[in-house]
Specification:
Blueprint: E1 2-6, E2 12-14, E3 20-22, E4 25-26, H1 40-44, E5 53-57, H2 60-68, E6 76-78, H3 89-92, H4 94-105, E7 109-113, H5 122-125, E8 131-136, H6 142-148, H7 155-167, E9 171-176, H8 186-189, E10 196-199, H9 208-213, H10 222-238, E11 242-245
Parallel strand pairs: 1-5, 3-6, 6-7, 7-8, 8-9, 9-10, 10-11
Antiparallel strand pairs: 2-3, 4-5
The structure holds iron/sulfur cluster.
The site of iron/sulfur cluster has 10 residues, from loops.
Length: 247
């Protein structure tokens, strides 16, 4: 893993998903096979394989505060093209320091991660009534998770993290995307652990080789995504959990 410390000039970017997005790191140690964020390599000049480099934006917390002083408040997505709680966050605490500022200013925040390291900051989340925390989960089958997301925490750890956050009174959601084989069982696994769920299909082709290698091609077609999302939406509806299909 190649780690560099960098001092960017921007940190609070406009986003099409929410008002703003903050990415405290360039690159992601989780290195998911299908990750769309690998396009960042083109913009940052990285030649290393995705998942094998991380730039830590060590000035991010100071820079964020200066930018927030000049911008109108809005919802901030943490993060869009890296996991804000990837392992290096344990050392650098850049996400935590950025969140401290966002909470102090009272801006709404949507966190999205695959890591139970997010539990470290529960006390901070409880200081805000405008924060929601999401864990991305793509399959209830951890063997499938290992094929597509070998560097990320297990499915079980993520679901447990959602449960603990929910019990702590934090608004939680599950980003069920991309829907991988074995995703069908997630409705039962997430029961009473989330306030809402988002469903999306596989939209990128970076991980097609994994489907081919393991004879899973039947689960990357329109039919699979349509029927599976319909079943999940109905399972979540029975539990009274709001489910939004994004495709
Ligand atoms: S955790 Fe998210 S940002 Fe990181 S590699 Fe996986 S999909 Fe990409």
């Amino acid at each position: 893993m190649i780690v560099r410390e960098i001092y960017p000039r921007s940190i609070l970017s406009k986003s099409k998903v929410f008002d703003y997005v903050v990415n405290p790191y360039v690159g992601c140690q989780h290195g998911c096979t299908y990750c769309y964020a690998r396009f960042m390599k083109r913009f940052t000049g990285h030649k290393e394989p995705w998942g094998e480099f991380v730039d830590a934006k060590v000035n991010a917390p100071d820079l964020l505060q200066r930018k927030m002083d000049k911008m109108p408040p809005g919802r901030v997505w943490v993060s869009g093209v890296c996991d804000p709680y990837q392992p290096l966050e344990r050392t650098y605490e850049l996400t935590k320091k950025c969140l401290e500022t966002l909470v102090r200013y009272g801006w709404p925040i949507t966190i999205q991660t695959k890591s139970p390291l997010v539990l470290r900051d529960v006390a901070l989340f409880r200081e805000s009534d405008k924060i929601e925390v999401g864990l991305s989960v793509a399959s209830a089958d951890d063997r499938v998770r290992q094929l597509f997301e070998p560097g990320a925490p297990s499915t079980k750890e993520r679901i447990k993290a959602l449960e603990e956050l929910h019990l702590a009174g934090i608004k939680t959601y599950a980003m069920i995307a991309p829907m991988l084989p074995g995703v069908e069982e997630l409705a039962a696994e997430l029961s009473k652990k989330v306030d809402y769920v988002l469903l999306d299909r596989m939209n990128y082709h970076y991980g097609d080789w994994v489907y081919r290698k393991h004879n899973l091609e039947s689960t990357m077609c329109d039919g699979f995504f349509a029927s599976t999302s319909k079943k999940l939406a109905s399972d979540f509806a029975r539990q009274g959990i709001e489910c939004q299909v994004l495709f």
